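Study the following:
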Amino acid sequence: MKPTLTIDMEGFRDLDVALGDLGSKVTARGVGRRALTKAAQPIADDYIDRLQPHVLTGALRDSSGVGTKLTRRQAVLARKSERKSFAEVYVGSGGLPQAHLQEFGTEDTPPRPSLRTAWEHGWRAALDALGQLLWDEIKKTVARAERRALKRLAKMGR
């Protein structure tokens, strides 16, 4: 079984209710992804700063960041996982083998844990920022929906 981290934070139940009030799961998932991406960006930046540049191409550094896409193999493993999340974003390198080799090392090369170190340094700040980012995204989404509704009413009144 994979190790899990359970954190109880105040205000997240209210956020869950507010996300449910947005009207559709698709909208709520989009709000969650945007907020998670913004919260995870400092971890990705720290990871990129800690990476040892690949000598020949710099491909490892160039493929690193925050996103919602996985490689085919990673997607299969994610589908098989026990926990299903409402919205997910991933931090790390694209599906390059040198990312794994750098993080964990080989028999000839010592490990240089860039991602683990960036995660350990940034996860608390990301979690603290996530609540405010979610509220901001919810407010923006509600404002957009109101503008669209007003625009539709204006068109109907013509």
In short: Residues 114-156 form the longest helix (43 residues). The radius of gyration is 19 Å.
